[in-house]
Structure formats: C-alpha cells, structure tokens
C-alpha cells in the first residue's frame, strides 16, 4: 500500500518516519533541496536518547500526481488552499485523503473536493523539526481520524496496518473529535504564544490560569457545550502532561512564521458572529496574535 504525505514539516516528517515501517511512503516537500536531503540521508528521527533513520521516497510537491493509495495532507492550514487546487486537478486518481490541520476553519474548503473518501484527523503527538530531514518526537500520543465524506472502510484498513507504536484511532463523529482538539488548541496555543511561556505555566501561574478559564468558558458558550468540567479537565491534563513543551503557535511566532490562528480563533469568531454573540476575550487574543505575527514577520498594514 502506497502512502503519500504532502508536507514535510514536523508532522509530515514524523508520520513519514513511523509509517515507513509498514508502508511504502512517498513524501512531497515544498523545496527540491529538502527532497534531495531526505533521499540522500533519510529521515533522522530522535526520541529521548534514541535515534533512527527512516528511508522514504521524497520529491517536490509539484511532482505529485495522485498515484498513491492513501494521501495524508500535513501542511499548515494557511498553506492548504494551493494544495486543495492541486487535489481537485488530480483527485480522480487518488480516492482517499486524510487532512491533519489544526482548528476547524478549513473544513468548509474540503466540501467541494471531488474525491470519494475524505477523512480528517487530530494529532496528539509532539514533534519538532530540527533540520530539513531531522525531527524530534518530543511527545508521544495518538492520532484520531474520522470520515468527513465517503466510506469508513479505507480508513479502517489504513488504521489496521499502521505500526502499533504509532496508532491511528478511527472515531465515529468527526465534529466531536475536531471540537475536542479545537478547545485545546484555542486555549493553550494562543495564550502560550502571547505570554511566551511553556504549556505548564498556564496552570502553574494563578493569574494565567484565570485567563485560561475565562477564555475556555467563552469558547464553550460559542460551541454550545454541556459537561464543561470534562472539557476543562482535558485542557488542564494536557497542560500538565506537556508542561515542558512549547506550543506550535509559540514556535511559529518565535520563528517569524504565520500561525494557524485563522483556523482556530478565526473559526470561533465566525461562529460567534453567526450566533450574534459577543466574544471579547477571543477577539482580544485573536488580534494580539495577529499583531505578534506582524511584528515578528516585519509586515506592515
């Protein structure tokens, strides 16, 4: 079974490394140079004091022809539009796509892709790209996946063949799955990015914790969630379990990259506007992140 992975950032490299143990993996990179490095040296994956080399086939994404049996889209949300246009052109070849973007703002973009089976997933691993062909697996978790459109059987088949140490769990309800991850991303990522702190600081500092709770309650109001204590417990548990980790949004800000704020808080602001709800906390934090992006990237209005 041939697996294609579009995107060779931290998540793309991580998935390519593990999936290469049971699949033939084709990794599609943004640049020719990265593809050349991966083909020459393989992917070096680090995990604690251990490290290993994974051998995959790599080529620039412009050479993707949709010939893989199952294609994973591992680019950031703001990079997705151009990939979708490519998929629309080639989708009659590849029938199975799994999208691994944070947030939920991108879901509306997937509706018109003419592929037979569209799946969405949430990744609970921690990964850090340390070079063009080097990835550090700094947080072991799972991947959840569910059907957005089409049949569940290809996803189950893919899940059954994945390595035991890198499980992909099939969920029945994509929205519930995505909402669970959205809440975590919407609370932890922007707050750590604004404050410049590791995840654990949000529960270790009593004042940061108050902001966390206020933001969480506003998010729950937009999403119409009951049993809010369960969702809050999940957020706090992740803060505790990843206390020494720096969130992906914080790393993006520090590196001068765009963040996925549009897919996360931008989505919530759109939902709030539809419901005519006032969301001062989310709005303030959204604009602060946009301001951080502008400052770090040197952009000007």
TrEMBL record:
Q: Name one Pfam family in it.
A: ApbA
**Which keywords fit this entry according to its UniProt record?**
NADP, Oxidoreductase, Pantothenate biosynthesis
- Taking every annotated instance into account, which residue ranges of this chain make up the domain Ketopantoate reductase C-terminal? 174-293
Q: In which pathway does it act?
A: Cofactor biosynthesis; (R)-pantothenate biosynthesis; (R)-pantoate from 3-methyl-2-oxobutanoate: step 2/2
EC number(s) on record?
A: 1.1.1.169
Instruction: Fetch the InterPro entries from UniProt.
Output: 6-PGluconate_DH-like_C_sf, 6PGD_dom2, ApbA, Ketopantoate_reductase, KPA_reductase, KPR_N, NAD(P)-bd_dom_sf
- GO function terms (MF aspect): 2-dehydropantoate 2-reductase activity; NADP binding
Catalysed reactions listed for this entry:
(R)-pantoate + NADP(+) = 2-dehydropantoate + NADPH + H(+)
Enzyme class (EC, first level): oxidoreductase
Q: Which GO terms describe its cellular component?
A: cytoplasm
Query: What residue stretches are annotated with the Ketopantoate reductase N-terminal domain?
Result: 3-145
A biological process from GO: pantothenate biosynthetic process
Which family does the entry's similarity section mention?
Answer: Belongs to the ketopantoate reductase family.
Its function, per the record, reads: Catalyzes the NADPH-dependent reduction of ketopantoate into pantoic acid.
**Protein's name in the database:** 2-dehydropantoate 2-reductase
Organism, as annotated? Neobacillus thermocopriae
Upper taxonomic classification of the species?
Bacteria, Bacillati, Bacillota, Bacilli, Bacillales
């Amino acid at each position: 079974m041939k697996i294609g992975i579009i995107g060779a950032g931290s998540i793309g490299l991580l998935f390519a490394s593990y999936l290469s143990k049971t699949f033939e993996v084709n990794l599609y990179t943004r640049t020719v140079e990265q593809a050349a490095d991966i083909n020459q040296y393989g992917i070096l994956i680090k995990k604690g004091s251990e490290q290993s080399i994974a051998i995959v086939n790599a080529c620039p994404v412009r050479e993707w022809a949709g010939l893989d049996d199952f294609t994973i889209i591992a680019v950031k949300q703001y990079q997705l539009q151009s990939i979708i246009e490519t998929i629309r052109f080639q989708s009659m070849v590849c029938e199975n796509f799994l999208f691994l973007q944070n947030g939920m703002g991108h879901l509306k973009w997937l509706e018109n892709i003419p592929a037979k089976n569209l799946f969405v997933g949430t990744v609970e691993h921690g990964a850090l790209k340390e070079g063009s062909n080097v990835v550090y697996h700094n947080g072991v978790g799972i991947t959840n996946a569910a059907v957005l459109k089409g049949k569940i059987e290809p996803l189950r088949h893919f899940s059954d063949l994945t390595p035991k140490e890198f499980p992909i769990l099939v969920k029945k309800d994509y929205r519930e799955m995505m909402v669970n991850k959205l809440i975590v991303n919407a609370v932890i990522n922007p707050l750590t990015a604004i404050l410049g702190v590791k995840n654990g600081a949000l529960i270790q500092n009593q004042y940061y914790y108050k902001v966390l709770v206020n933001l969480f309650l506003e998010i729950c109001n937009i999403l119409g969630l009951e049993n809010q204590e369960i969702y809050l417990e999940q957020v706090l548990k992740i803060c505790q379990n990843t206390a020494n980790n720096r969130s992906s949004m914080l790393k993006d800000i520090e590196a001068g990259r765009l963040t996925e704020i549009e897919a996360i808080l931008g989505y919530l602001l759109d939902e709030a506007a539809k419901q005519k709800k006032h969301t001062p906390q989310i709005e303030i934090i959204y604009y602060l992140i946009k301001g951080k992006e502008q400052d770090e990237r040197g952009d000007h209005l």
